[in-house]
Design brief:
about 200 residues, alpha+beta, 7 helices, 9 strands
Length: about 200
């Protein structure tokens, strides 16, 4: 059901030909119950994307159309399938390497000083790799917010290098296991001391 799948919209097809998207609220507001959507006279949104569209375009259209799924059609407007919000989130997670181990650093850079090659050189000089880089406007219109997903687990030296190059570090999230390893060692030492 729509509720189980967390969907508020469904694609409507006639013999595999895509007709449009129907909203759950329109179905619930329909006063005349019938076995057919044709006779129910529900408003349909004619919104779909062609197979092979980039995931960014799917995200853009899902937001623009305010729908919980985006139908995918072939060149003859035949229904192929749909991309749901959960499917979109999974694809974006893979695209930006969120499932790969590493750390995240957010920098603030003057628009005129933004040099991706310099940022890459700084990361590589610290034996790291950029897994993903995204750039967007910062709160100051002359600044950019640069978000990096880095292959390094311990980023202290990298943050120091960015500071030496006068980058403003807005935030960082490291996957540093040295702290938890140290806690585990201390716990083991305590257990040995207590003879447990």
């Amino acid at each position: 059901s729509m509720e189980e799948c967390k969907l508020s919209h469904l694609p409507v097809c006639d013999n595999n030909e895509f007709i449009g998207i129907v909203a759950e609220k329109d179905c619930l507001a329909c006063k005349e119950y019938s076995n057919s959507l044709e006779t129910a006279l529900l408003p349909l949104q004619k919104a779909s994307l062609s197979a092979g569209e980039h995931i960014f375009r799917v995200a853009e259209k899902m937001e623009e159309w305010q729908v919980t799924l985006v139908p995918v059609t072939d060149e003859n407007d035949r229904y192929i399938g749909s991309v749901t919000g959960a499917g979109l989130l999974h694809a974006l997670t893979e695209l930006v390497s969120l499932s790969h181990p590493g750390s995240i650093i957010v920098l603030i850079v003057k628009d005129k000083d933004y040099l991706p090659s310099e940022i890459a050189q700084i990361v590589e000089s610290n034996d790291g790799r950029i897994l993903h880089l995204s750039v967007g406007p910062a709160s100051d219109k002359f600044m950019l917010e640069v978000t990096l997903k880095i292959s390094l687990m311990e980023i202290g030296p990298l943050l120091q290098t960015f500071s030496r190059y006068n980058y403003v570090i807005l935030g960082s999230w490291a996957h540093d296991d040295s702290y938890s390893a140290n806690l585990h060692d201390r716990f083991d030492a305590l257990m040995n001391y207590l003879n447990i």
